[in-house]
Each structure stands twice: as C-alpha cells, then as structure tokens.
Design a protein that fits this description.
The complex is a heterodimer. By secondary structure, chain A is an alpha/beta fold. Chain A has helices spanning about 20-35, 50-55, 85-90, 100-110, 140-160; strands spanning about 5-10, 40-45, 60-70, 80, 120-125. Among the domains of chain B are: about 5-35 and about 425-485, no CATH class; about 85-220 and about 335-375, Cytochrome-c3 Hydrogenase, chain B (Orthogonal Bundle), CATH 1.10.645. In chain B, α4 packs antiparallel against α6 (about 140-160) and α11 (about 315-330) packs antiparallel against α12 (about 340-360). The radius of gyration of chain B is 22 Å and the shape is globular. At the A-B interface, α2, β3, α3 and α4 of A face α1, α4, α5 and α6 of B.
Chain lengths: ~160, ~500
C-alpha cells in the first residue's frame, strides 16, 4: 500500500572537517540507492538548532545521519536513537542558537507541523577526528557507510509496514 | 590554598570554549583564563586549490555565519582578480547580506542573548532560552521570530542560490540576477523586517529599559570596560556591514585610525599567550599591554556596540533615531557597557531591514548586469566585511594560475578574543567573593562573553544545543571539592 507519510532523510555534518562529513556521505549513498520514484526527500544540512528544526517542518518522519563523537567506541560504530534521547545522551551545544530539543519544543509550541520525537530517528556514526580540515575521512568511516545506508532502509521499511 | 573553578562549555563536535577561574586563599578571584579551541589545518587545506573555490569552502567552516564568509571571500576575489563588480552586483550582495543580518541578529537576541534579560539573569537555566522568551513576551514573539527567519532564509536562497551555504558570489559579482517577481517578494520581506525591528526595540524598551534593575546591571562596573572600538564605515562615517573603511576610535570616542582593509597589517598585530591556541589581535600602533583597558592598551573590540561607537551615525532614518536614543539613554558616545551590545544589535537589525528596503526598491536591482568577467592575472586579494559578531577579514595570495599560495582569515571572535577575556575577568572578580559560586553567578559570568555573540572557531556544529556549563572547584592538591554542571550529560 502506498504511503502518504512524508519522510525526510538529513545528512548532518561538515564535509570539510574530516570525519564530521560521515552523515553527509551516508545521506548521499542513501540518495543514490533510492529508486527514482521514491517519495522521500534527502537533504544535507551543516547547521543545527532552529535551522535544523525548520528543515523538519512539514514532514511526518525524519531520519538524521550524523557523525557521533565517542572515544569509547571504535570509529565507524553505528548507534541508533531518537530525538527524545537527545537531551540526556548528548553533549550537544551551540554558542549561537537553541539546542535541537528546545528548537523542537519551540516549533511545536508555535504550531509548526513537526514529527513527534520518536519519529525523529538519529543514526550516529562514531567519528574520531572532527577538528581537522580535510575531505578524507577515516577509512572505517568510509567502510561504515554501506551499513549506515542499510540501517536507513530498514527504518524506512519498518515505517512502510506500520503505515 | 588556591581553588580552581572551571566553567567548561562542552560541545560534542566543535571542541569547547572554557573559562577557568583561579581563586586565592581568601576565595577571591586571582586570575581567569578563557580558551577557545582552534580547528586545525585550514590554511593547509586551502593551499593548492583554485582561489575561486574560497567562497564555497569558507562558508563551510562556519555553521553560524556562512553568509559572512561567502561575502568576505567574494570581495577578496574581486581584488585578487582585479575586477570591480557592476553596481547591481554589489547591491545584490549587500541585499543578500542585509537579509542575513536580520536573521542572525534576530536569532541571537531571542534565542541566546535576550533570555538573560527577558527571562532574567538568575532565572533557572531551563527557562533561560527562547521558550522562556515566548512564555514572557507571548506567543507572538515566537511566531515573529520563526516567520522572520523563514522569510529571510527564502531571500537568502533567492539571491545566494542556496538557503544555508550560498554559492552565488563570484569574482566580479554574482552568478545570477533577480527578476521583478523576486524583487517584489524581497521588498515585502524588507517591509516586514522593519516592522519587526521596530517591534523588537519596543520589546527591549519595555522589558529591559523599564526595569531599573536591568538598567543598573547594564551600567554596572561589572560589565564596563574602556577599550578602542572598530567597525566598517561608509563615506559619511555611518555603519556599513558590507563595505567601506575600517574606523577605529579611542576610549574617548575620537578617531584613532581609518584605513582600507588592504592595509590591515599596518594596524593590527597578534599577541600569543601560552594558555590559548587562538591569538589576541591588538592595535599595532598602541602595542600589547596585557589584559587591561584604557587608552594605553592596544586592546580593541568589534561588536555591534563597537560598530555604533566607531561610527557617527546610521545611514537610514529609523535606525538613526534608534541610534540617537541609544546614546542618549546610555550617556553619549562611546558606550563602554558591554551588555549594551544587545541593544546595539537591535539598532543594527533595524538598519539592516531599512537598508534591505532601499536596495530592494532601487530601479537597478533587477538589472541583468551583475557580473564583470575577470580578465587579468590574479595576485593578492584582501577584503573585510562586518560579520554580525565582528570584523571579518579574508586575505588570499595566488600564483599566476590562481592557485592559492597564502590564506589568512581574521574572524570576528578572534578580533574580540582579548576584550572577551578581560570582560570575563572583570565579571568574575566582581561577582565571586569568599569562594561562593552558584549557578546564577556563573550565568552572570557567562553573560559577559555571551554579549559578544562569540562563535567558537568558526566551526560547523552538528546537532548543536545550548552551551553546557561545567564548574569544577579544586583544592591545592587538585582534588575536586565542588562540581556543578548545567546542561551536561549525567554521569
């Protein structure tokens, strides 16, 4: 059955900051693998907070691919969580804006059409060097892209079953 | 026994700025350090690339003000290729930049700087954010902020080619013109921006200026320092964000220097401290005298407050009226009260809106002649724009094929590094006594640097959030005797 659910895939990160481009590379891989008639939008975003929230307006479901900085895990390890986990699991910070959970609360309080927290799923790709300018990510980041892409397609398939 | 307090705004990806406060045995502030992380290898990353890539590369180094880097880079390429854009090309760039200023200043006032005043400097941290502003001012505030951002992002996309990381700036002008339909939309947005700017100043007046406690806070010695001030000015010494000469005034408001951006190395030198990766620019012709203010110290600031100090007025009517009221209430030019930067930011927001309308209604703005094609051999390009958070200079040099051999950027937060450091020291020394530290005091220390709208390292952030704050108090043996955290991950 065709789904009327509007789905957005966001590649988040900075493609010139070594491993920070992981989410962008994964989103590009998803875009290439999607059938031409797929009713799914894929975008790249290098900003957070209000801008990131605004990019989600009008969608029923969002999958965010992002580099995840964690010294405990091997580079390339994937993690899956949703927006509801953000406040308590990530040291997310901006010097200029609001954090994503706050931005989402603002958007919802003002009546913006935003997906619920559990429909904003985040696929984290463990990164190591996100402070050096470069366009060549760690080899294990490159190696993790197919698996990250697969996770996105599994999430998309699960959505179709439910809808 | 010395205590050590660390205010550590941890970020996940962009590194972190850190404030360290060292107390003496009596619990008074002995010294403070402010550290900003520096991203590595940007120059190396750029060298060997064609210079014309810079407007698209440099706008990737910052998730907060890519438009400012895009403009500085495009202007630097004009000089590098010895080419002068046609009038419509320059106007389009400034129109684009004005829309960006409206969004950036709006975001800072309502989401970051404003909550300290609108909600209260010692309000619970969980309420000191844009949601708290909406709760206090009303839902209209939130709707207006979101609407202003949305509309101006559309303008940025129309002119810049992309909503977030613009691509339209090229050596010699812009890659495309706008049509009449687009112009009409931009004109309408500009008119709404003016209404929004006036309304925001009214909000500031009612909530901050009508509250004597807030006015006392702004005027207090805690947030006052007498430095030199820098900003771009036009031929009438009015504030300009896109182009002009760099004007520096002394702590009494007298013109100290006025120079073309290409001569910046004759006026600016950089001091190095072992405690920070980031350098401290200072006025070469005064000299580095340490973290002290006054006419004998080469320390300068370049913030909205500084730009208003460094200029003699605003080029548009309503902004000029707001400028006059600002200096009238605060005791004349220059204003040395760093928290007044929030008010100055709103004066600038109004100017950006009015300038946007002027440009959008210029008969030549839809001209298809937006670019002069470069024909000469590239050499050296140096250009300056005012980024919302400070003067931004790009300097490139290339070989005869336009391949980069030198890249130097001085960004706004770097220019403000020394005065931010001094502001933190003054605030901490004034607020922390007998070793007593609490969240309200720490927020008031943080307010000292938040007024600068700092942007650490021009780093793009992924999933950014509010700046977490960690405070560690250590005894002489390095043992943690107190630990406080705001916005931090629970252990």
């Amino acid at each position: 059955m065709a789904s009327t659910m509007r789905t957005l895939v966001i590649g988040l990160g900075n493609p010139i900051l070594t491993d920070d481009g992981a989410g962008i590379y994964a989103a590009r891989a998803v875009a290439e693998a999607l059938p031409p008639d797929a009713d799914i939008d894929v975008i790249e975003v290098s900003c957070g907070g209000l801008t990131l929230m605004e990019a989600m307006i009008g969608y029923d479901r969002v999958i965010v691919l992002d580099a995840f900085f964690d010294f405990q895990e091997p580079v390339g390890t994937l993690r899956l969580f949703d927006a509801g986990d953000l406040a308590s699991t990530l040291n997310t910070a901006s010097t200029h804006d609001a954090d994503l959970p706050t931005a989402l609360r603002v958007g919802r309080a003002l009546g913006a059409s935003l997906p619920p927290d559990e429909a904003i799923q985040i696929v984290g790709i463990t990164a190591r060097d996100v402070l050096t300018f470069g366009e060549t990510p760690h080899p294990q980041i490159v190696a993790a892209i197919p698996a990250a892409t697969q996770v996105v397609f599994q999430l998309l398939a699960a959505q179709e079953v439910r809808s | 026994m010395k205590q050590r307090i660390t205010i550590d705004p941890i970020t996940r990806l962009e590194g972190h700025g850190k404030i360290e406060v060292f107390l003496d045995e009596a619990g008074e502030v002995a010294n403070t350090y402010f550290q900003i992380p520096e991203l590595r290898g940007f120059e190396v990353f750029c060298l060997g690339r064609p210079a014309e890539e810079m407007p698209r590369i440099t706008n990737r180094i910052c998730g907060v003000c890519p438009e400012a880097h895009h403009m500085a880079a495009s202007k630097a390429l004009d000089m590098l290729y010895h080419v002068d854009p046609p009038r419509a090309g320059k106007m389009l760039r400034e129109l684009f930049y004005s829309a960006f200023y409206v969004t950036d200043h709006t975001t800072h006032f309502y989401a970051l700087g404003g909550p300290d005043f609108v909600v209260g400097p010692d309000a619970p941290a969980a309420e000191r954010n844009i949601l708290g502003v909406v709760a206090k001012v009303g839902q209209e505030a939130g709707l207006r902020v979101i609407n202003t951002r949305k509309k101006n992002h559309e303008v940025i996309q129309i002119i810049g080619g992309r909503a977030i990381h613009p691509v339209a700036g090229l050596p010699g002008g812009m890659s495309k013109a706008i049509n009449e339909e687009e112009r009409q939309f931009i004109e309408q947005v500009a008119r709404e921006n003016i209404e929004f700017g006036l309304w925001s100043l009214e909000v500031f007046s009612q909530i901050v200026l009508n509250n004597s406690a807030y006015v006392d806070l702004i005027l207090s010695d805690t947030y006052t320092q007498r430095t030199y001030y820098m900003g771009l000015v036009d031929e009438n010494n009015h504030v300009n964000f896109y182009d002009g000469l760099i004007r520096v005034v002394d702590p009494d408001g007298n013109e100290f220097a006025k120079y073309a951006p290409v001569d910046y190395l004759d006026h600016i030198a950089e001091h190095v401290e072992p405690t920070s990766y980031l350098k401290y620019p200072y006025l070469k012709n005064i000299g580095w005298k340490g973290f002290v203010d006054g006419a004998d110290s080469g320390m300068y600031a370049c913030t909205p407050l500084s730009r208003l100090n460094a200029a003699e007025g605003m080029a548009t009517m309503e902004a000029q009226a707001a400028y006059q009221k600002y200096f009238s209430v605060l005791g004349g030019r220059p204003v040395h009260h760093t928290l007044a930067a929030h008010w100055a930011r709103l004066v600038e927001l109004l100017y950006a809106a009015e300038r946007m309308l002027e440009l959008a209604t210029d008969p030549e703005i839809t001209s298809p002649n937006v670019r002069t094609i470069p024909t000469e051999t590239p050499t050296v390009g140096i250009a300056t724009v005012e980024a919302p958070r400070g003067t931004l200079t790009h300097h490139y040099e290339t070989d005869e094929n336009g391949i980069l051999t030198k890249v130097n950027l001085i960004v706004g937060t770097t220019n403000n590094h020394a005065p931010i450091t001094l502001s933190i020291k003054k605030a901490a020394s004034s607020l922390i006594h007998e070793g007593v530290v609490n969240d309200g005091i720490l927020n008031m220390v943080e307010m000292a640097f938040r007024s600068y709208d700092p942007c650490f390292s021009c780093a793009t952030h992924s999933l950014p959030g509010q700046m977490p704050l960690e405070v560690i108090v250590r005894d002489a043996k390095g043992e943690v005797v107190d630990h406080r955290a705001q916005y931090c991950t629970p252990d």
